[in-house]
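To illustrate the input format used throughout this study, we show a single complete record. The first block contains the structure-token representation of the backbone; no residue identities are included at this stage. The design step must infer an amino acid for every position from geometry alone.
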């Protein structure tokens, strides 16, 4: 059971726990649609620490906690807390766990959420650590696919974009490697999936690494597009070299097979043109909306109230 455990990596979630989260998320989705109020969590408090910008992760976690009937304490940027005076993450987490029942943290450094979890006495959720992982994004990504296709075996998922710095893609392929999914990794040469992510996958899980989207598009069920993570480039020339390297537009959708979908963790900049939003393939806004019931279900499991 997830009760009182940390969720820092997708490895912290067993496959049966993930499906239990999906089932509960579906119930919450229906409850939300019916307009019923939930008050089971009214004595519970979530603390959110966002040391990097966020719209979806912070707001959907906070919305999820409010919708469960709980309360939220929020540090929306480091300069509004004593981190700006030099307080360590360890001390911040010690204090936050005295004030709350569960903590969500986003931080620019890989490994920061794991460090936070070591000093917190309440469960910690990684809301994205540098180029490391974003496990709850993967939960809502897979929930979106599960609702659409009913499972992952035999599904062909093409992950496109900045696979070097894009933490959502690192978590995603790690979780997908538990299934018999076919995964294509398509990126500019300089933004390939890091070797340490690929070599950590199970040996029997093969990924197809290519630069040629057109070659894999006709067989793709899910085109998972990502933004170039401008903020993580050390060398501005490297960033200049990949601007506009790929763009999904109406022409792209015409090459896609019937029933296929386009996903994106968002924010989107220019990698999907706005006219794609109205196509039958677009799922990215629904995907982001799924963040609320999925995070409600996760919080519920972690706090052990459902
Ligand atoms: N997908 C995602 O993490 O979005 P935000 O950066 O807006 O939280």
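Output of the design step:
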């Amino acid at each position: 059971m997830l009760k009182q455990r940390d969720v820092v990596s997708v490895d912290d979630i067993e496959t049966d726990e993930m499906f239990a989260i999906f089932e509960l998320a579906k119930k919450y989705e229906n409850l939300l649609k019916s307009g019923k109020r939930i008050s089971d969590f009214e004595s519970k408090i979530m603390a959110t620490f966002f040391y990097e910008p966020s719209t979806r992760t912070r707001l959907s976690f906070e919305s999820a906690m409010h919708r469960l009937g709980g309360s939220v304490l929020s540090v929306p940027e480091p300069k509004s807390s004593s981190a700006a005076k030099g307080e360590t993450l360890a001390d911040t987490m010690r204090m936050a766990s005295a004030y709350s029942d569960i903590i969500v943290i986003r931080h620019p450094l890989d490994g920061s959420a794991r460090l936070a979890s070591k000093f917190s006495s309440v469960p910690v959720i990684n809301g994205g650590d540098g180029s490391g992982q974003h496990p709850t994004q993967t939960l809502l990504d897979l929930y979106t696919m599960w609702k659409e296709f009913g499972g992952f075996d035999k599904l062909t998922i093409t992950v496109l974009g900045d696979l070097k710095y894009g933490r959502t893609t690192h978590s995603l392929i790690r979780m997908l490697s538990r299934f018999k999914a076919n995964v294509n990794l398509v990126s500019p040469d300089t933004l390939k999936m890091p070797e340490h992510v690929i070599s950590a996958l199970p040996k029997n899980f093969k990924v197809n690494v290519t630069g040629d989207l057109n070659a894999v598009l006709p067989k793709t069920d899910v085109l998972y597009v990502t933004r170039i993570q401008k903020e993580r480039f050390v060398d501005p020339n490297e960033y200049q070299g990949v601007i506009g390297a790929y763009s999904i537009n109406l022409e792209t959708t015409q090459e896609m097979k019937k029933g296929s979908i386009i996903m994106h963790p968002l924010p989107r900049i220019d990698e999907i043109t706005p006219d794609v939003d109205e196509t039958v393939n677009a799922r990215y806004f629904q995907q982001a909306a799924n963040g609320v019931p999925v995070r409600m279900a996760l919080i519920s499991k972690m706090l052990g109230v459902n």
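Structural context for interpreting the output: The beta strands are 45-50, 71-75, 102-107, 124-129, 156-160, 182-186, 207-210, 222-225, 261-263. The chain has two domains: 10-133+291-303, 135-288.
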